Amino acid sequence: MVVRIPEEGRKITEIEAIRQYLAGIDIEYELWEPSQPVGPDASNEEILQAYSADIEKLKARGGYVTADVVNVNAQTPGLDAMLARFNREHWHDEDEVRFIIQGRGVFHIHPRNAPVVAIEVEAGDLIRVPRGTWHWFDLCSDRHIRAIRLFQDPAGWTPVYTESGVDARFEPVCLGRSFVA
Ligand SMILES: [Fe+2]
C-alpha cells in the first residue's frame, strides 16, 4: 500500500505510519497473508476457502453476513460502465470492506475535516471504509483487480453520489510500492 496526500505533496509508504494516518481518518488497514497460499489461477471458491478463517473473524467483528470475490480485468465486458459507478465521489449505507488478492487500485477518501487521501491498494491489503465515508475508486492502468468483498447487507451497497466535483481535482495515479519503497 502507498498513501498520498496530494494537496500536501506527501507520501507515506511505511506500514505502521500508514496504519496510524488512516486510523486518524477512521479508515482501518491491515496487511494479510492467507492461511493457505493461493495461486494466480485459483477459483473464487478456492480464494474464499483459503481466507475462510480470516473472513469469519471479520464477519464477527463487523457484523458482515456475506463475502464474495470480485474479479475484473481489461477484458471484462461492461468494465467501463462498472467503473463509472464508483469513480465519482459517493458514499454507501454500508461499510466498504475489501481484501485485495491480485491487481491494484486507488481509493480516494475525502474526510470531512482533513485533506483528500489517495490510497493505492495491492495484494495483501485489507481496507475498511466505514459507511457514510465520502470516497471514490479507480483501477490502475493495468485495469485488473481481484478482491474479497464483505457485506453487512448487499442492499446498502448502492452508491449515493455527492456530486461535489471534488473527484475531478485528483488524478488516479498508481505508483506501485516497488517504485517508492
Ligand atoms: Fe464505494
Describe this structure in words.
With 181 residues, the chain is of the alpha+beta class. It contains five helices and eleven strands, in the order ββαβααβαβββββββα. The structure holds fe (ii) ion (FE2). Fe (ii) ion binds at residues 86, 90, 92, 96, 135, 137, 159.
Structure, briefly:
The protein has 181 residues and is of the alpha+beta class. The protein contains five helices and eleven strands.
Strand and helix map with partners:
Blueprint: E1 2-5, E2 10-12, H1 15-24, E3 28-31, H2 44-50, H3 52-62, E4 66-72, H4 79-84, E5 90-91, E6 96-109, E7 117-122, E8 125-129, E9 135-139, E10 145-151, E11 160-161, H5 177-180
Antiparallel strand pairs: 1-2, 1-7, 3-8, 4-10, 5-11, 6-7, 6-8, 6-9, 6-10
The structure holds fe (ii) ion.
Provide the descriptors you would attach to this structure in a database record.
181 residues; binds fe (ii) ion; alpha+beta; 21% helix
Order of helices and strands: EEHEHHEHEEEEEEEH
Bound molecules: fe (ii) ion
What value does the Rg take, in angstroms?
16 Å
Structural class: alpha+beta
CA-based shape? globular
Task: List the uncertain runs.
Answer: none
Portion in helices = 10-25%
Q: Main sheet, how many strands, which sense, barrel?
A: 9 strands, antiparallel
- Provide the β-strand percentage band: 25-35%
Give the helix tally: 5
